[in-house]
Design goal:
The complex is a heterotrimer of chains A (about 140), B (about 350) and C (about 500). In chain B, about 45% of the residues lie in helices and about 20% in strands. With about 350 residues, chain B is of the alpha/beta class. Chain B contains 14 helices and eleven strands. In chain C, strands 1-2 form a two-stranded antiparallel ribbon. Classes of the chains: A mainly alpha (about 140), B alpha/beta (about 350), C mainly alpha (about 500).
């Protein structure tokens, strides 16, 4: 009753590849459409795009962007490593978060008045403490 | 602003005070926080419930904070491998060695890579369930059906306890009617809801369900599309016999016993019946200090001696089955060997 | 109302604390109602059944509702189901209407919650019988329908489509989950990463990375200009008036109904509810082009649908013993430990508990409304916090949220960071976050239901011929796609004409 070309059987041992293959082909297909349909516009606007890039680069804050990435990685690595020192207490999270918040705030702040610095200090000590206390001590969540 | 600052300061000092916590006693091999990772990522399943019950008791007994984390199989084994100090232990069931026997990703040989801890409890509720108005009224009807050449689809969850039950049924047909076992075929599926749905759609004749989840369906009138019947409980008769006499819901223990061996027989080798208890037990890091093993064994045997935990477990239809680490290891190794034979026979 | 008279003071207290804890969990990016319920589950062991129900339902309703707060204030969906709340809620906040947006969201949540409670009470068994008419095939088609919505949510049709398919693709990375009936084999992962990527990427870290961290990285690249998030002072924008709902009763009714319906289908995640409701709003709105720029009706659609989910998800729970979403799944555990069994006979055999569920559900919604409506004035101040204090805190909260998303896995923190960076560079080449995340959310379900349908029936025709429901769904899919292409064509013509 069902026409032959609609019949499909899936070997269970290979079934993990069936759907991903279809999605991969759709993705490749769409990407090709994208490349073809835009290549002409791309070439035509090449000069304009370069100018755009240059404009964007002028406003690009390499120091803050780069340092943010470095800080994030250091934060995650440190939190993971130190959690072996104080297992299952969340203390690694607490101390790393304090250091991370202070560092990131200092990176982002523009005016270094005394008052701002005090607020930053307080915020980076108190916020992780409150979070840590609520999650680790009240709700017994496992923290790094 | 000032008052708020003062409040903050009070909060901080309170927090620090609490954080310091009780002083660490030198004679206790573990203190403070004990993390119990489980091999299931669901906080809704039987693994989590059994772990939570025993964690609660351990916390009280040892004056620690035992916390159950449903991280899933591979993450649980990873966390366990890191914790040689006993700050993290794992809690899981037979899946932990079956996964390796079935060659699944993320499973190492349990007995070689880790240390087996004490067994705690059994979930006796696994059941093979069929549609109420089907011609298969018993598991014997299913086996005979296969003999007559009828194709019988069994919905199971791949790669675990479910697959062993399925293998046992197929093996029983093979033992009694060699060559007919091909009539038993599996439908691989997932959650309880999906399995029920396959029955409702008549896309499976038998599903691997459970007493807990399917009992009410067995009490629906036969003309209801959703009505089901129990065919077989793989748990040992002696295990079900320990349940509360009320059984589960409207089905008494006596009635449930009708679905266990020998009343519902799935033979292993023509002489003995296949039975299987889904067992929950602790798994430790291989290098964990034997002192901690002994310490936990002692604590748990005291907990079970008090008898309160048994009541909690039975209320939730779990059967307490405590065995200290040494005995547990031998017992589980034997169980693994039986399962391996079945897997080899049917794959 | 004699329902409410039966409430003991302890129950009331438990509902209130449940709602408040739930709101906090919902509001923390990466933490969800499901986690709130799971975390508080051990606390219920010592309580009676009625008291546990009070606490758990409070947590559930609070947790679902709390997600709107960060969605509106800082453009980070607190839970996956509040993704669509960011579309109009955050633009409103930027126009100085944060308080108004929040209040609209809360009122809509209340309406959605109460609507679903009424439906639950009156029609639970009948709707459960409807739910079991949806097998693998129909569920796949519903997901396909939700995926076509990517088209109408995209700013650029092609970019949106690529983003959506990429989202699906990335959701498939890792093992084909045994728990959903897969074969446990790993795919789309190079051999040397198998140990790390065995479980693939989880949704919550991906979500908050993409929405939370990406924005911070974009700001960092601009040098983090010192002005706060909103250029307007609080109270500068339009104040909230109930009259905003005039003319939108249809919106509220339709969205609540969509939420309830998605909730009652087991195995279709709750996040699909608000996506569907929002897209329908866009398709049926008088001013579809304004949605996404800060229209109150967008917030209404999103929030009434995700609270409509609550009562809906309880329908299969009480009448089939099958959870309608991940949070109700955890609740089954609470029932089991109380020795109470859910299933088709539950309502008839445990009438008291059933009434207790209803009472507490209604109560939780009212408490949620009161707590949030009056706390808002303080909550909105968040957007005045200078960025150099707010951003580090957001990162810390997101990190802890990611870590806790699967009960404490470090790889989830890395996922969060990875997708933050991915979002930053993705946006540069036209990646659209909303279609991407919708694809990511629905990808795995789409796979399971598609593959299982074929495994069961062995032919592709079944997707068209299975049932009248399936055919009806194809009509909806066709309409949804047709509409999106029509819109894209009209926009294209307008651009060319201009």
């Amino acid at each position: 009753m069902v026409p032959e070309f609609l019949r499909v059987t899936i070997d269970f041992d290979q079934s993990h590849l069936f759907f991903p293959r279809i999605v991969t082909w759709i993705l490749v297909g769409l990407a090709l459409i994208g490349v073809v349909s835009r290549s002409r516009a791309f070439v035509r606007n090449w000069a304009g795009m370069c100018r755009d890039c240059a404009d964007a680069a002028r406003g690009f804050d390499t120091r803050r962007f780069g340092a943010t990435l470095v800080l994030l990685v250091v934060y995650a690595v440190a939190m993971d490593r130190l959690s072996d020192v104080w297992p299952n207490t969340g203390l690694s999270f607490l101390f790393c978060s304090m250091a991370f918040m202070a560092a990131m705030s200092l990176l982002y702040v523009h005016d270094f008045r005394r008052k701002t610095l005090i607020v930053i200090g307080l915020s980076s000590i108190l916020s992780p403490l409150v979070v840590w206390y609520a999650l680790a001590k009240l709700f017994f969540l496992t923290l790094p | 602003m000032k008052r708020r600052l003062l409040g903050m300061c009070l909060l901080v000092s309170a927090a620090v005070g609490l954080a310091a916590g009780p002083a660490v006693a030198a004679d206790k091999p573990i203190s403070g926080n004990l993390r119990i990772v489980i091999g299931s990522s669901a906080t809704s399943g039987d693994t989590y419930q059994n772990a939570a019950i025993i964690a609660d008791e351990l916390s009280k007994k040892l004056d620690i904070n035992a916390k159950v984390d449903a991280v899933g199989v591979s993450a649980a084994f990873q966390a366990l491998s890191r914790a040689k100090d006993g700050s993290t232990v794992m809690f899981f069931h037979d899946q932990s060695y079956l996964g390796h026997l079935l060659g699944l990703k993320g499973y190492d040989d349990l007995f070689a890579t880790y240390k087996v801890g004490p067994t705690i409890s059994i979930n006796p509720g696994d059941a093979f369930v069929g549609v109420k108005d089907s011609k298969y009224k018993t598991i014997e009807d299913v086996i005979e059906g296969a003999n007559k050449g009828e194709r019988i689809r069994v919905a199971i969850q791949p790669g675990g306890v479910s697959e062993v039950y399925y293998g046992a049924l197929k093996n029983a047909v093979k033992v009694r009617y060699p060559g007919k076992e091909a009539n038993i075929v599996s439908v691989k599926t997932g959650s309880q809801g999906d399995k029920n749905q396959l029955l409702f759609d008549r896309q499976a004749e038998v599903i691997h369900g459970s007493v807990q989840a399917n009992e009410q369906y067995t009490r629906l009138p036969g003309d209801d599309q959703k009505a089901m019947r129990f065919l077989w409980l793989p748990a040992r008769k002696a295990t079900i016999a320990q349940a509360n006499p009320e059984g589960m819901g409207g089905t008494s223990r006596e009635e449930l016993l009708k679905f266990t061996s020998p009343n519902a027989s799935v033979t292993l080798d023509g002489k003995r019946d296949f039975t299987f208890d889904k067992e929950f037990f602790f798994i430790y890091n291989k290098d964990m200090d034997p002192k901690i093993v002994a310490y936990l064994d002692k604590a748990l045997s005291e907990i079970f001696a008090e008898g309160k935990v048994q009541v909690t477990m039975k209320k939730a239809f779990f059967i307490p089955n405590f065995q200290p680490s040494k005995e547990a290891e031998g017992y589980l190794k034997k169980k693994a060997a039986q399962s391996q034979k079945l897997i080899e026979a049917t794959h | 109302m004699d329902f409410l008279a039966a409430i003991t003071p302890l129950e009331l207290m438990l509902v209130v604390s449940g709602v408040m804890i739930g709101i906090v969990f919902g509001a923390i990016p990466g933490m969800t109602a499901t986690m709130a319920v799971a975390v508080c589950l051990p606390m219920t062991y010592g309580l009676s059944l009625n008291n546990s129900l009070a606490l758990l339902l409070g947590l559930y309703v609070g947790g679902i509702s709390g997600g709107l707060v960060p969605a509106i204030l800082i453009n980070i969906p607190g839970t996956p189901s509040s993704i669509t709340t960011t579309f109009d809620g955050y633009p409103m906040a930027q126009k100085g209407e944060a308080e108004r947006a929040l209040k609209i969201g809360i009122v809509s949540s209340l309406i959605g919650g109460l609507f679903s409670a009424v439906v639950l009470f009156l029609f639970a068994p009948a709707l459960a019988d409807l739910a079991i008419k949806f097998s693998y095939v129909e569920k796949f088609l519903i997901i396909l329908f939700a995926l076509t919505i990517i088209a109408s949510l995209s700013k650029n049709l092609l970019n949106g489509a690529i983003s959506g398919v990429l989202g699906i693709w990335l959701s498939l990375v890792g093992t084909y989950d045994l728990n959903t009936g897969g074969n446990g084999d790993i795919r789309l992962v190079p051999g040397f990463l198998e140990d790390i990527l065995i479980n693939g990427f989880s949704l919550l870290p991906v979500l908050i990375g993409l929405f939370g961290l990406t924005v911070i990285l974009e700001e960092a690249a601009k040098g983090v200009p010192p002005e706060p998030l909103s250029h307007f002072k609080l109270g500068d924008g339009k104040p909230f008036r109930f009259s905003v709902f005039r003319g939108h009763f249809g919106t509220l009714f339709r969205s609540s109904a969509i939420g309830t319906f998605i909730g009652l289908l087991p195995g279709i995640g709750g996040s699909a509810a608000s996506v569907l409701a929002y897209a329908q709003q866009k398709n049926l709105s008088k001013h579809p082009e304004r949605l996404g720029t800060g229209e109150p009706e967008g917030v209404m659609a999103s929030e009434s649908s995700n609270n409509g989910l609550t009562g809906g998800a309880l329908i299969p729970l009480v009448s089939l013993g099958i959870p309608g979403d991940s949070t109700t799944a955890v609740m089954i555990g609470a029932f089991t430990l109380q020795g109470l069994q859910l299933g088709p006979l539950f309502i008839g055999e445990h009438l008291d508990s059933w009434h207790e569920i209803m009472t507490n559900l209604v109560l939780a919604n009212i408490v949620m409304f009161l707590v949030m409506f009056f706390a808002i004035r303080h909550i909105v101040k968040v957007i005045q916090v200078p960025k150099h204090l707010l951003y580090p805190l957001i990162v810390v909260m997101c990190a802890v949220g990611s870590y806790s998303a699967n009960s404490g896995i470090m790889f989830d923190v890395w996922t969060f960071l990875l997708f933050g960076v991915f979002g930053y560079f993705g946006h540069k080449v036209g990646l659209e976050s909303a279609p991407f995340i919708i694809g990511f959310i629905l990808g795995k379900d789409a796979e399971v239901y598609f593959v299982k349908s074929i495994e069961s029936y062995g032919n592709l025709a079944i997707f068209f011929t299975k049932s009248p429901i399936a055919m009806g769904l194809w009509v909806l899919i066709a309409l949804s796609l047709g509409y999106a292409f029509y819109q894209a064509w009209r926009n294209h013509r307008r651009e060319c004409g201009a």
